Structures are given as C-alpha cells and as structure tokens.
Amino acid sequence: MAPMANPAPPVEKMEVDEPAKAEEKETPKDLNAIAVESGFCHGITLNTNLLLFVLLWKSVAIDIKEHCALLDKGDVHFVGRVLQVVHKTRKQCNAEVLHRLLSSQLTSPSLHKDALLAWVPSPRPTRKTASPSAESELYIHLLVLLYLVDGNRLDDAKKCAEMLIARADALDKRSLDPMVAKAIFYLALIYERQHKLHELGCFLNSRLRTATLRHQRESQAVLIYTLLRCYLINKQFQSAAKLVSKVTFPEGASNNDLARFLYYQGRIKALQLDYTAAAGYFLQAMRKAPQEAAIGFKQNVQKWVIVIGLLQFEKDETLTLIVRLRQNVIKTAVKQISLAYSRITIKDIAKKLCMSNEVETEYMVAKAIADGAIDAVITCDTKDGARFMRSSETVNVYTTTEPQLHFDSRIRYCLELHNQAVKALRFPPKNKCDELEFAKEMADEDDEDF
Fold this sequence. Notes:
The protein is mainly α. The protein has helices spanning 31-71, 76-84, 86-92, 95-105, 111-119, 134-150, 154-171, 177-193, 201-214, 217-233, 237-246, 255-271, 275-288, 295-312, 319-340, 346-352, 358-371, 402-423, 432-449, and strands at 343-345, 376-380, 387-391. Belongs to the proteasome subunit S3 family.
C-alpha cells in the first residue's frame, strides 16, 4: 500500500485576496479636542511673540542701564558719549520701557517723578532699585521728552522740557550741560511747530547770557544757532547780523552744532549781498555735516550753494564741458540700444534718440564704435539699401584674462593693506628696570639649581 501523502498546508489568504470591506463612515472628530488643539497652537504663537518682546525689552533695558552706569560716574566725557547714541536709543524706546525705567530708577517719590509717570501709560509694577545719580535721572527724563516729541504730544513735551531745564538748574552740576542743551533744542523745536517761536526770544537771550558767564559750551552753541533761527524765521535780519558780530562760537562744540551755525551765517551773508563769504560758509557747513545722516540739511545747503553761485555771475569756464553733455548722453543711449538689440536700423535709433537727422545719428553711432564704447558694425541691407547697426555676439568673459586681472588687483590691495598694518604696529616701550630684574631672577634660579 502506497504511503499516504502529507496533507497540503492550508493556503493563507493575503490581504489582496480578501474581499474589500465596505468603507466605514468616518466618525466626526471631537470638537472640544479641535478647539483645545487650535488654542494650544494659538497659545504657542502668543508665547513666542511675548518671548520676543521680553527679549527685546531686556536688550533695550540693558543698554539704557549701561548708559546710566556711565552717567553715574559724573564725567562730562561719558555724558557726551551717551548722548551721541541717543538717536538709536530713541528708536527703541516705547511706553512700556519708559514706564519700567521710571518706576525702577527714580525711586524717591516727588512731583517730578509723578509728572513723568503721568505722561507714560502704566504697565505692570516693577522692582525698585537704588536711587540714581542726577545724570541718570535727567537721561531718563530726556528719553521721556523724545518719546513725547515722536508722539506729537507737543503740549506735554513742552512741559517735560521746561521741567527738565528747571530740574537741571536746581541740581546745578556742570556735567548736566549737554542734556540741558538737548532740552533747549527740543523746546525751541516744539515752539516752532506751534508757530510760537517768537515768544521764546527773551528766554533764549537770558539763557545765553547765563551759559556764556558759566562757560557752558554745549548750551552756548545750541542757544546761539537757535537764536539765529528765531531771528531769521521772524525776519529780524539786523538782529541776527548783530548777534553774529557780538558772540563767539565755542571752540569745543560738536560738528553738528558748528554746521548749523555756519549755515545760518551763510544765510545772513547772502541777505547782506556778500555772496563770496556766503558761499564759503555754506561749503564749510557741507564739510562739517555728517556723511551718512542729515540728508535734508545737506540738500538745503546745496540749494543755497547753487543759488549763490548763480547770483555771483562769475565765469566758471564750463561751456566746453556743458557742450559735451549731449554727446555723452547720446553715447550712453547708443550703448544701451546695442545691448538690447542685435540688429536695428539707423532710422529706429534716430527715433529713439529723438534726432531728426539720420546722417547725424549714423555719425554718433560710428563715433561710439570708433571710441570702443560699443562692439558693433554699421552695414547696409542688400534689398532696400537701409543702413542698420549690427551688434557683435557677447563673448564669455571667463574665457578672457579679465577675471585674472581683477583677482590680481584685489590680491595686491590685500597685500598692501597687510604691509601697511604691519608697519603701523605699535609695541609698548621696553623698560630697562624690568629687564634687569628678569636677569637677576634668572641668575638666582641658576644659582639655586647649581
């Protein structure tokens, strides 16, 4: 009897062999879970924004506290250094930062502090620290003044500036003079925006006498050019000229103050028909003005320079250069046309350049080709005889030696800069006493080893 064969193992069904199940209806998600999830994401966004705000506020607060630490030293040089960067601090200040600074720095309760806090909205309470110095107190006061001026709250800003000046007079410290000068400048600006600058003349004159007697250079410089501006706005030209002849501008004033003073001197000389002296003052004001800022001031000075130059009626011998302007403009336009078109007729070029004569246009194109300004040729069409300009194909610049020449010039510049830096190195002077002591120590160590 034949042996019985092993029973075949049962065939397992694969997933693909199973019949497709009917699609189950998708159960709706829990609405509370969705709300919690969306609220969680929204909370993350709010927390991120809050964290960014806290980090920004901490950086601004650290900068201002560093400024206050410098001001606490009571040195005039440190006060000037802090006021040089006050325009950057001004952009970073807001109501929250100022209120926290007022609450934490100005600890002693007084009418002065209450008035400042009234002008700034109150956030959460802050931690108090030790009472600041007079310089730090007025610096924070100045930041509040700038905040009010930027917010166009002129009435509050005027009270704030007057309070700052009165507070500085009560403290009576020489190191506070730069801040008083800033306060006087913004007080005059506020009066000018309110069209009441004529009411400030007596105050400015009395302050100028006091600043001159006390040798307060910053206040003296600001008061001089503010008075000149007051006289010029009110059309009191004789008073302005008399003031310039009687006062002496302080030598230690900043370049910005000196530029303003030279500008007003130039305007006075121009009204007196002394155009040569006026042009000299305006050019000096341009040189003293900051290079990257004060764009409006430089534009105004340049306008006066041009008008004075026209009023002088002097031969500048620039006719030859002026005649060349037309040719240079046409040459530049032809160069742009050659880059834009591979082939264009002379007639179309004349239309683009607004030239009525095609012969003159062809001459200008030929001159540009001869000068090497464009890489093109003038040819004639064999069908209708129309002449046109055909630009040459652009050559790959990397197949030429031009990149090598550029790299060579840059490397030469870097090497020259390195050589100059090495030559400019300074070493501390050698002290012979230190060398003798070092030699003695070495001798003693040798004796001990022996």
